């Protein structure tokens, strides 16, 4: 059974940690961006023609010449009020950009997260089950190659084969050109999700499959498997009863720990397929020095990764029966 | 013990192809390492000016004359790829050295006292909770782009795993009896770190540099692909690939295919060196 009091204390600790972490991340990223030689006023003006008076006003708004801590304080203060500033590229509040983009990205990441998890676990189990067979060799080869392949290159290859050569999918953009986002049909949206999700899944499969395979191999060479075999258990029954039970929780934990990687992968994949997600916004913000947007994205992605790590911790601490038992016996 | 045992020694050494595992491993390491060095040296000798634009031979598919084909400006893609690979390997080398140095310093200081230890582990948590790619982007912006930005960015974001390994190792060493003895003899912490800990973690450090390498190269390529860091004239692999994206729709597949494959092969080679070195250097696996 869940020990609810323990979970609550644990979550309380985690929330405190998250706040400290966010403050630290905010400070670090603020200092980094502030060190940058890029002039925010210049970035804001862009190609517009503005008067000198206007520039002075903008400089005041961006705090040019103010000491860094004053700017930082101002930023944090307005952020606590829910005001993340206005994006320079999109000219709308940062929070709106992030909520819209993050939703799109979450759909993409969640889809590939689930697909890669299920597929990776299955492949890993098969490889571990038929150790040394051609399945094992295939899975191993696949994982080795995929772990060394640059994410964006795989995405490029998929784009090349399926969009350009076969012409099955459009070459990019979240919705067809000339159609408003609200008017896009579910089908439009789905066809644009398939390739990015495939690219992202293909890459994430490798890690989990490799992990499952090694773990299963370890378990299969343990004494209780030998004993089970001596009791004439074999084949799928043996794997199901003694193997999967032991590797499922570590595998799920690992999958939750991979949020950071999946985010990095999503940034690249979104860039290749011009999928309108948070990663694309981050790259655009970075390239065109949209400081408020970039800082906002960094904070939100930190929360995202932190959630993954916390869930992994919870699974490890409270769901795994072995650790749960040993904790309650203390 | 001195009795000559008539082991079937011949069985293992009759054929020159049936080398024992150790020799084979060393051979693999030497071969792959020399290949990588050859690529770097080769790319150093490529003069950028020889990659000339030649509009009489644009967008040629791969042939014997142009192994990887030519691009929309008639430049030979093989030469450009080679140059880019050399650049990537050098950036990767610098970045992994930086991250290893950071990891060793933080790992060693975590062994000093309790507060430093929790500080280091907090720092590891902090850096691993910002997605790598975003951190690299942030750092490369703060340094105003350029090669330095990429090197520092990749270096600063890759030390966490190695620090964890070193920290765990040091914890183990610190509980050993000889360290306790040294402490009782009144040796300073610094002395213990230098004499007892450093020699033992040296293997991990050497391995760390090489195992970080593939990640460093891949992140370098990703960041340049996204357009941060190197200028578009520099033939880095990431830039070559991002350029090729514009020409994908016209069916010029070789522009994206070959540079990517070569990068993949380089990363695989590094993995191979790393894995085999680990086999040799790590005594716990020595019996395999």
UniProtKB/TrEMBL annotation, chain A:
UniProt-annotated location(s): Cell membrane
Principal location listed in the UniProt entry: membrane
Domain ABC transmembrane type-1 positions: 102-316
One GO term describing the cellular component: plasma membrane
Superkingdom of origin: Archaea
Cell membrane listed as a keyword: yes
Magnesium in keyword set: no
Name of the protein in question: ABC transmembrane type-1 domain-containing protein
InterPro entries linked to this entry: MetI-like, MetI-like_sf
Record family assignment: Belongs to the binding-protein-dependent transport system permease family.
Species per Swiss-Prot/TrEMBL record: Candidatus Methanobinarius endosymbioticus
Keywords from the named record: Cell membrane, Membrane, Transmembrane, Transmembrane helix, Transport
An annotated GO BP: transmembrane transport
Record-annotated membrane-spanning stretches: 15-33, 106-130, 142-169, 189-211, 247-273, 293-316
Topology term for the membrane: Multi-pass membrane protein
PROSITE patterns given in the database record: ABC_TM1 (PS50928)
UniProtKB/TrEMBL annotation, chain B:
Compartment(s): Cell membrane
Domain of life: Archaea
Domain ABC transmembrane type-1 as annotated: residue spans: 85-274
Any one of the GO CC terms: plasma membrane
Membrane topology of this protein: Multi-pass membrane protein
Principal subcellular localization: membrane
GO biological process, alphabetically ordered: transmembrane transport
Chain ranges passing through the membrane: 26-46, 85-110, 130-157, 197-217, 252-273
Sorted UniProt keywords: Cell membrane, Membrane, Transmembrane, Transmembrane helix, Transport
The family this protein is said to belong to: Belongs to the binding-protein-dependent transport system permease family.
Protein name, as recorded: ABC transmembrane type-1 domain-containing protein
Organism field: Candidatus Methanobinarius endosymbioticus
């Amino acid at each position: 059974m869940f020990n609810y009091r323990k979970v609550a204390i644990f979550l309380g600790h985690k929330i405190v940690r998250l706040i400290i972490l966010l403050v630290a991340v905010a400070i670090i990223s603020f200092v980094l961006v502030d060190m940058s030689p890029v002039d925010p006023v210049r970035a804001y003006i862009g190609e517009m023609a503005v008067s000198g008076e206007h520039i002075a006003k903008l400089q005041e708004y961006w705090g040019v010449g103010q000491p860094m801590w004053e700017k930082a304080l101002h930023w944090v203060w307005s952020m606590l009020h829910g005001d993340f500033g206005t994006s320079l590229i999109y000219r709308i509040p940062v929070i709106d950009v992030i909520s819209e983009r993050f939703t799109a990205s979450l759909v993409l990441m969640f889809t590939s997260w689930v697909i890669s998890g299920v597929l990776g676990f299955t492949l890993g189990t098969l490889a571990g089950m038929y150790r040394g067979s051609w399945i094992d060799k295939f899975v191993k080869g696949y994982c080795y190659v995929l772990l060394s392949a640059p994410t964006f290159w795989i995405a490029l290859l998929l784009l090349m084969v399926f969009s350009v050569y076969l012409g099955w999918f459009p070459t990019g953009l979240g919705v067809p050109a000339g159609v408003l986002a609200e008017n896009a049909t579910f089908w439009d949206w789905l066809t644009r999700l398939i390739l990015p999700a495939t690219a992202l899944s293909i890459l994430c499969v490798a890690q989990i499959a490799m992990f499952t395979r090694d773990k299963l191999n370890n378990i299969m060479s343990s004494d209780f498997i030998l004993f089970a075999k001596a009791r004439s258990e074999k084949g799928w029954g043996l794997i199901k009863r003694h193997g999967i039970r032991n590797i499922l929780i570590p595998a799920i934990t690992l999958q939750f720990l991979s949020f950071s990687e999946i985010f990095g992968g999503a940034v690249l994949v979104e860039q290749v397929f011009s999928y309108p997600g948070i990663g694309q916004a981050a790259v655009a913000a970075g390239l065109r020095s949209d400081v408020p947007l970039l800082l906002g994205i960094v904070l939100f992605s930190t929360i995202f990764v932190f959630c993954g790590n916390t869930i992994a911790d919870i699974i490890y601490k409270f769901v795994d029966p072995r650790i749960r038992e040993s904790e309650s016996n203390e | 013990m001195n009795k000559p045992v008539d082991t079937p020694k011949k069985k293992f050494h009759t054929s020159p192809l049936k080398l024992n595992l150790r020799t084979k491993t060393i051979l693999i390491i030497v071969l792959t390492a020399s290949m990588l060095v050859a690529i770097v040296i080769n790319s150093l000798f490529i003069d950028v000016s020889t990659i000339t634009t030649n509009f009489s031979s644009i967008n040629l598919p791969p042939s014997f004359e142009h192994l990887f084909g030519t691009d929309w400006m008639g430049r030979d893609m093989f030469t450009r790829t080679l140059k880019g690979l050399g650049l990537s390997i050098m950036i990767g080398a610098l970045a992994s050295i930086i991250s290893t140095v950071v990891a060793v310093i933080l790992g060693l200081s975590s062994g000093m006292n309790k507060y430093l230890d929790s500080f280091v582990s907090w720092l590891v948590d902090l850096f691993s909770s910002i997605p790598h790619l975003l951190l690299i982007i942030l750092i490369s912006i703060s340094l105003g782009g350029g090669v330095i930005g990429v090197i520092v960015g990749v270096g600063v974001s890759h030390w966490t795993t190695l620090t964890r390994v070193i920290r765990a190792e040091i914890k183990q060493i610190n509980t050993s009896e000889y360290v306790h003895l040294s402490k009782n003899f009144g040796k300073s912490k610094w002395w213990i770190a230098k004499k007892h800990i450093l020699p033992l973690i040296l293997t991990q450090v050497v391995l760390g540099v090489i195992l970080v390498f593939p990640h460093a190269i891949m992140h370098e390529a990703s960041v340049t692909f996204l357009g941060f860091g190197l200028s578009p004239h520099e033939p880095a692999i990431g830039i070559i690939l991002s350029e090729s994206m514009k020409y994908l729709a016209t069916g010029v597949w070789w522009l994206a295919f070959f540079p990517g494959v070569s990068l993949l092969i380089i990363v695989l080679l590094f993995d191979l060196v790393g894995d085999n070195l680990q086999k040799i250097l790590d005594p716990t696996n020595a019996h395999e």
